[in-house]
Amino acid sequence: MSTLLTGGRALDADGRADGRWVLLDGATIAATGTGEPPSADETVDLAGAWLTPGFVDLHVHGGGGHAFDDGPSAIRAGLAVHRAHGTTRSLVSLVAAPVERLESALAAIAELDDPLVLGAHLEGPFLAAARCGAHDPRHLRAPSPGDVDRLLAAGAPRMVTLAPELPGGLDAVRRLAGAGVTVAVGHTEADLTTTAAAFDAGARVLTHAFNAMPGLGHREPGPVGAAVRDEWVTIELILDGAHVHPVVAGLLMDGAPGRVALVSDAMAAAGGPDGGYRLGGQEITVHDGVAVLAGTTTLAGSTLTLDRALRNALRQGVDPVAAVTAVTATPARALGLGDRLGRLAPGYAADVVVLDDDWTVRAVWAAGVRVAATPA
Questions:
Q1: 61 with 95: CB under 8 angstroms?
Q2: Is 265 a catalytic residue?
Q3: Which single residue of 66, 184, 186, 369 could bond 74 by disulfide (Cβ 3.0 to 4.6 Å)?
């Protein structure tokens, strides 16, 4: 079935084009333009609404009361919440757990019959205990060759976050990157030199910049300094106002233009009320939308959806093209999918989001199928 979207203010990494039409034909964008539109099975007049590519989330653990560690049904239910908010393609992120449990989870994710799922993201178990955040420290370990091979055989994760300073860390980066896995540096005590060595070995992402790692010091630039310096690295940013101060977030986006990917790092409470939740067996308390380990002030993921991250960026004065790029083309490129996701162009996936003047989601198409209107 073909769908023609007309009269929108199109916005993607290539810029803004008012009055643009976009023709979706099956799962692909067939054509775009600003002149006389072609015919289609269905025509939708956007009446001046914003039209962007579908959002891509590199880092999300749950939503709507569902944690992705709880299996396929929880994954489907949680992703449905994020899709209603414009995230058409997602990695499924898993927290640290015993290797055998991660093997089972990877196999289950690999068997999901859902083309909108881009694969699994293992955030652990190869993390620094001193920077574990909300991960259960009992499940952390150094990346032995045997463990790495077991996880690759179980279901080939799409992305793995690890601390490169751990014994065998740089060897694990090389092994994973050589197997086609996107390697991210995170939950780490690494300094500038060690982080740069990880990027030289094949790591290409910095997981949630500034969080669970040394800060950006004027004499010790640390992992963030290494990532800003290396033009091949994509830098995750949780833009919820709690994880990173808006001033620092703005400095990062200015310092690494086109390389910051806004991520949700959402746990089960995204799209849900305050209260008690669980994350990888850990008790989590959510108050005023901020998730922490119960009884502590340690942040435990976020309650973000990417449309809210986009609005936060715009409120902070980020240029609209740069803000939209940070939830579309930049994360797509980090996974090697920049040639088919994240732009409103012929041959790209028919993933689009329609947003009102206040940047709230009005409608979403994923792979050419209208999947959600704005949730109540």
A1: yes
A2: yes
A3: 66
